[in-house]
Automatic annotation (TrEMBL):
Residue ranges of every copy of the Cyclin-like domain listed in the record: 73-161
Protein's recorded name: Cyclin-like domain-containing protein
The species this protein was found in: Acer negundo (Box elder)
SMART domains to which the protein is assigned, alphabetical: CYCLIN
Cell inner membrane as UniProt keyword: no
Keywords: Cell cycle, Cell division, Cyclin
Assigned protein family: Belongs to the cyclin family. Cyclin D subfamily.
GO biological process: cell division
Superkingdom to which the source organism belongs: Eukaryota
Lineage of the organism: Eukaryota, Viridiplantae, Streptophyta, Embryophyta, Tracheophyta
Pfam annotation, one family: Cyclin_N
Amino acid sequence: MSVSSNCNLYCTELASDVVSLDPAFDSFTDDDHDENYIISIFNSEVDQMQSAQLLAKYRKLPELVSARQEAIKWMLKVHNHYRFKPETTYLSVNYLDRFLLSRSFPAGKKWLWQLLSVACLALAAKMEETSVPLLLDLQIMEPNFLFKPKTVQRMELLVMATLKWRLRTITPFDFLHFFVHKLSLLTPQRNGFSTNRLLSSASDVIIRTCKVINFLDYHPSTIAAAVVIWATSNHIVDDQKLGCFHKRVNRDMVKRCYNLIKRNLQVPLNGKLGVLFRGSCDAIKTSTNYKEIKSNQDLPVPIHKCLKSGND
């Protein structure tokens, strides 16, 4: 498929026409437009849920989850290095999970896992970031292998085809601003409510829920609501808070998700919400021929060989 030379890929909108969301959430109102939007993403998250099959697969195959943990650990390091949006990391893990749901993956081939991790993170960055590192520059933070850009691009195509080109998916971040806005109406700033702090803390927790497979059992809206409650200073789950979000929020599921956060979250002694999750890991002994991405030229190059090869 060719792209016409006359095709203009730049936005033609004026800066004044672009609407941005400020910390006060002035763009969120209770009119019909906002209600229709939030209902649409509630409907979309139900259509996209595949957690039961994925969670069952992970619980049967602990080796798969261990490899997943290592992949997420690397993604988080790159996320911190480039200061990516939290949405980017969450989306990259979403791609990885959905890919693994549809395909069997060799357990012992660490280079394949590294390649998949790079491809998923690259795709997510292209979806969310305004400035995306080159594919070689993305392979940092002590990776075991270094791949040529064309190899990563081939894996990107395989991932997109496996996901049926559905890269836009509902995540807890789609609900986060709306829920924080609703909670801010219940807890005014004059009583110590800080919107920016709550958003930052909640985002931090959300990206770390990726490390615990049991969170796959919950809808994105449920995770968002539970995390927002957790990120508030008093950590109290009551019907008033649960009722302020939206009528489509399942209160019982939010309570269960909140308890899961409570069991897995470790808060450092300094009181900051630099959260660390205990990775409850539950992997795979299969043989799949990945001819789509593998050729003699595409074999991964161990880092120590790259360093020795100079310009190669």
